[in-house]
Amino acid sequence: MKLNQFLNCFFFYTELAARCQLSARHSHSSAVVGNSLYIWAGKEDRSSDAESINHFSILSGEWSTKETTGDPPLADSGYSCSVVADRIYYFGGLSTEDYSYHNSLSELDTSNLSWTSLESTDPDRAVMSRAYGGTISFENDGIHHLLMIGGRGSNPVVPVQNVGYTNIGTNKWRTNEHSMYNLLTRSWSIPDVIGQFMPPASFFVMKKIDNSRTVVFGGATSENDDIVCSNILYVINTTVNAVVWQKIERPETIDNWPDGRWGHAATVITNCDNPILVTTGGKDKKKHKR
Questions:
Q1: Cα separation of 269 and 109, whole Å?
Q2: Which Pfam families would you find in this protein's record (predicted)?
Q3: 41 by DSSP, 3-state: which?
Q4: Within a domain: residue 157?
Q5: What Rg do the C-alpha atoms of the chain give, in angstroms?
Q6: Would you say the pTM of this structure is higher than 0.85?
Q7: How far, in Å, CA of 103 to CA of 232, rounded?
Q8: What is the domain-level CATH number for residue 184?
Q9: What span, in angstroms and rounded, lies between the C-alpha atoms of 198 and 250?
């Protein structure tokens, strides 16, 4: 898809979406499977139904609410998700019922809209219970894996060596922890992290370029007990054993580099001559909208 085609489609479906009855929300994530967009839960002005999911048909431009079966995740906001074939994987998040952080992993099969719990929340696992981080999927030798990075959560019970944890008060911690999950063996691992990687951060965007490369931009970090809104761009290369980070320095010839922000949205357009990162919205240090 060329950039002008993407923008035309974006504004067309944005206008259609504005006419739908989908309730306003935040702290959710969306996933695209084929020609369908799925949005589950998030924080709303009214109580959300965790047993249903909102579906948007890209072909018809119509919204619908579909019932699911099985047990949905307890963490219904701040989770991150990624797609493998026709399945969506949801990691971590924050429960709007008791404001507890989770390190659970759930699978939604979009062919029959059934939930499966792969890993329930376990505070003694060497995976910090957290929200507002990032999750991507990748394949190696026919086996699919998930990589979870960063976020904000509760005090890590089992800290990981050579990982950053920043106490931001009221039992909240930011981290740059890396967790990997093998979907075939259903086992966790901790990859080696190489290069100049981001500090403990949350509310950043983390989007795949291709099977092995991912772009990370922005987010909330800390410096001298003060919040910092990042505008740093990273590209990471992922294997089953290591995650290699590259910090992209701002060229001196570019004046319109994006301002620092957190809580923003982004996508990567890949079917053009060069991959393009498109980012929008977010808030700065003073919570001004960008």
A1: 25
A2: Kelch_KLHDC2_KLHL20_DRC7
A3: coil
A4: yes
A5: 18
A6: yes
A7: 27
A8: 2.120.10.80
A9: 16
